[in-house]
Specification:
Helix content of chain B: 25-40%
Number of domains of chain B: 3
Oligomer: heterodimer
Number of helices of chain A: 4
Largest sheet of chain A: none
Structural class of chain B: alpha+beta
Shape of chain B: globular
CATH class of chain A: Mainly Alpha
Number of strands of chain B: 20
Order of helices and strands of chain A: HHHH
Largest interface: A-B, 30 and 31 residues
Strand content of chain B: 15-25%
Distance between the termini of chain B: 38 Å
Largest sheet of chain B: 7 strands, mixed
CATH superfamily of chain A: ACP-like
CATH topology of chain A: Non-ribosomal Peptide Synthetase Peptidyl Carrier Protein, Chain A
Chain lengths: 78, 412
């Protein structure tokens, strides 16, 4: 998955979870949960969304690599 | 009009899902009502044949007011009275969707009784809004299929495709087909934050005025529970994994089996035990607001089922798809602050319940284990309970049972 594709998928899922926010305004190193006020259920829905859209199996210990835009894009691009 | 909580005085009928002649049975969703907590699906608690829809769409009806009549037989429909009549005057039909103990209906028609309120506005994602502008689509007119019912890019593009697929070729046919054409389902409005704030103010004000609260708290080592959960989740596909909050919920439910004095309601100073352990799960809504629909028989459900029930409730709480039975029936409330939140919460009882259990955020703290200080994940659980029906001794027992249950997570 290219960086642009990963970014588009992440934006789309996040804008579904936090409809009032504009993911394009996120900084690469911002904690997504802080910036978008995601609770545990929201974050779980984010992970489920990434899994469904990309087919990547995301083990729970890897969740911390999905906490910022930059690290999540890198994770999806591995 | 069912009472969907202590704070509700009336609701506005926004959609009928039945018509005269339909056969209905207990549990069917028959109407959608707009309340301070958003759009609620009203279930029926009776069965028979619908003989009359008394209230038009758009009418505001007081709690206890008559919405429709259900007849016993499938034969000719009873003569429908021109105006709503009080339930006791109805001979052939009985009030179907009214709480019988409350005052009779006072429907106040609001004109025009056609449109579903859209004043609160559809949720449209910013990306979808941009795409809609590019494609010249009005995103507010679309039915959202995204998370929480929001209109997503996919919805906008689907609308653009369907517009392209049906060129304005045959105006006559199009006009004829119009009533049958696939139209967006009526918008289920989410909730109005200002109205919900009023509802919360009313319920919490009443609680603070009427209920003599007592408060207890206790800090619990979650090391065993979280280690067990990690191993459990490692064997589960992404969507089946369970959040720690589910363990806290289940432990609370099982503890209430052992301490039933805290599960039920207090009506005019008399405690009525719950008819099961139906925990109201407090859900915080984006943009402000709170709702605590019931997860029925919480104590009897396996963890993955509770997790699915919680996800479903959160989703529906935010899109306005909660059901009347879920809002009317909690026997106790549990609130969990979740990640990145405060260490503890001192709850306010939701009347007429008699207790609320609150979990703070799980955090790593120095903890003494077998004489040694270790870093352990701990959670502070609190209880606020009604002193009219129980004492601190009972409350403390509940917290210590929750602690014990969380040390044996495999049994939850």
């Amino acid at each position: 998955m290219t960086e642009a594709e990963a970014r588009a998928v992440i934006y789309d899922i996040l804008s579904g979870i936090a409809p009032e926010a504009d993911p394009a305004s996120l900084g690469g190193n911002e904690d997504l949960r802080e910036a978008l006020d995601l609770d545990s259920m929201d974050f779980m829905n984010f992970v489920v969304g990434l899994h469904e859209r990309t087919g990547i199996d995301i083990p729970e210990p890897d969740y911390q690599q999905l906490r910022t835009l930059k690290s999540a894009i890198a994770y999806l691009g591995r | 009009m069912p009472a969907l909580g202590a704070d509700m005085t009336d609701g506005t009928l926004v959609e009928w899902l039945i018509k005269p002649g339909d056969r209905v049975k207990r549990g069917d969703v028959v109407a959608v009502v707009e309340t301070q907590k958003g759009a609620i699906e009203v279930e029926i608690f009776d069965e028979g044949i619908v003989s009359e829809l008394v209230v038009p769409v758009g009418a505001q009806v007081a709690v206890g007011g008559l919405l429709a009549r259900i007849g016993e037989r499938s034969g000719p429909q009873p003569q429908a009275p021109a105006a709503p009549v009080a339930p006791q005057e109805a001979a052939a039909a009985r009030p179907a969707v009214a709480a019988p103990t409350l005052k009779p209906a006072t429907p106040r028609p609001i004109a025009p009784p056609t449109a579903i309120p859209t004043a609160h506005g559809a949720k449209v994602t910013p990306a979808a809004r941009r795409r809609a502008a590019e494609l010249d689509i009005d995103p507010a007119a679309l039915a959202g299929t995204g998370v929480d019912g929001s209109v997503s890019v996919a919805d906008v593009e689907a609308a653009a495709r369907s517009r392209a697929a049906s060129p304005p070729a045959a105006p006559l046919a199009a006009a004829e087909a119009a009533p049958l054409a696939p139209t967006a389902p009526p918008r289920r409005v989410g909730f109005d934050p200002a109205l919900m704030r009023k509802a919360i103010a009313a319920a919490m004000g009443r609680s603070k005025r009427e209920i003599p609260h007592y408060y207890l708290s206790h800090t619990i080592d979650l090391g065993a529970a979280l280690a067990w959960l990690e191993a459990f989740n490692a064997a589960q596909p992404v969507a089946q994994r369970v959040l720690p909050a589910v363990l806290l919920l289940k432990a609370s439910a099982l503890a209430l089996r052992e301490v039933p004095q805290l599960n039920g309601t207090c009506v005019e100073g008399v405690f009525q035990p719950g008819d099961g352990i139906h925990i109201g799960w407090a859900i915080s809504l984006r943009g402000g607001g709170l709702v605590a629909p019931a997860i029925r028989d919480t104590d009897a459900r396996p963890l993955p089922e509770l997790m699915a029930a919680m996800r479903d409730l959160v989703q529906r709480a935010r899109t306005g798809g909660l059901r009347s039975s879920e809002l009317g029936s909690p026997t106790v409330t549990v609130t969990s602050l979740g990640d990145r939140s405060a260490e503890s919460v001192t709850g306010i009882i939701y009347p007429p319940q008699v207790a609320i259990i609150g979990f703070g955020t799980i955090s790593s703290r120095p903890w003494v284990v077998a004489g040694q200080v270790e870093a352990r994940p701990v959670v502070t659980v609190s209880l606020a309970a009604d002193h009219r029906v129980s004492d601190g001794h009972i409350g403390a027992r509940l917290l210590s049972v929750i602690e014990r249950l969380l040390q044996e997570p495999a049994k939850l």
